Amino acid sequence: MTSQPAASGLPPPTSFPQTSDNHPAEDEYIDYALFTSPDFSPIAFCNSLVLATTTAADTEIDLAPAEQRVMFDLEEVEKLLHKETTQNHATLLPHAAKINQVSNILATTQSSLSSVTASFQRLENEVLKPYNVALPIYSALTKLHATANLLRAVTWFLYLVRQFQGIQTQLAQLKPASSTTAPEGRPNDAARLSVRAAKSFAEISRHLGNFPRLRSVRVVTDIENGVVNVNRK
Questions:
Q1: Annotated region Disordered: where (predicted)?
Q2: What range defines the domain where residue 75 resides?
Q3: What are the pLDDT digits (tens) for 64-78?
Q4: Better pLDDT: 131 or 6
Q5: Taking Cα atoms as reference points, which of 209, 208, 199, 122 lies closest to residue 163?
Q6: Measured between alpha carbons, how far is 52 from 174 in angstroms, rounded to an integer?
Q7: Are residues 43 and 95 located together in one domain of the fold?
């Protein structure tokens, strides 16, 4: 028969039923190690029970012996549990009280957790989901804004280059003068156009410095390399 467990509590399931040389356990045939193993598979156990009474040559499968074996094992386990709880009620009652305390704490924790979950759900619906929807739109808007800025910078660059090339055309059409000043002391047309050309070129250089990405546009690099003349029709 099963011996009285220590006052600290019941022995682990894998250790009972206990046996002795003079008093073997009544249910010693039950393989508790099998049932308590973390690798226990109900399907594999059921298959082994069926194969114990059935062979591949049988034309019919009789499940009654396997069912009787399982039901008998259940009855024996229930008897063992009843005996253990009866013999160790003094030890089990404090554990039951602790379980009730833990259950109350768990109920309070679950209530708080439900409140946190509801708050997070509200945050997700009101903030996270709209943010996830708006994020790709914001990304597309940022790219469009950058593209628009680049196009405006290219447009202004082309205007400055056209202005500079127009001044150069005017300079080329002037007749060579013997001096850079008129008789009255005023700058002649060539000198005046040269000053305008220098200012225009400086403005182009400053614009390229302010927008380095302009050089990623092919028309800008072609103009810098002298391939394109914006004044050409």
A1: 1-23
A2: 13-113
A3: 888 888 888 888 888
A4: 131
A5: 199
A6: 116
A7: yes
Is the residue at 122 inside a domain? Answer: no
For the chain, give the mean pLDDT: 78
d(CA 101, CA 111): 16
Same domain, 99 and 149: no
In one-letter notation, the amino acid at residue 211 is F
Q: What is the DSSP string of the chain?
A: -PPPPPTT-PPPGGG-S---SSS--TTTTS-HHHHH-TT--HHHHHHHHHHHH--TT-SS---HHHHHHHHHHHHHHHHHHHHHHHHTHHHHHHHHHHHHHHHHHHHHHHHHHHHHHHHHHHHIIIIIHHHHHHHHHHHHHHHHHHHHHHHHHHHHHHHHHHHHHHHHHHHHHSPP-SSSB-TTS-B-HHHHHHHHHHHHHHHHHHHHHH-GGGGGSHHHHHHHTT---TT--
The structure tokens 């594999």 sit at 44
Q: Comparing C-alpha atoms, which of 174, 173, 167 is closest to residue 230?
A: 167
Q: What angle do CA 121, 125, 128 make, to 5 degrees?
A: 100
Q: Please state the domain count of the chain.
A: 2
Polymer length in residues for the chain: 233
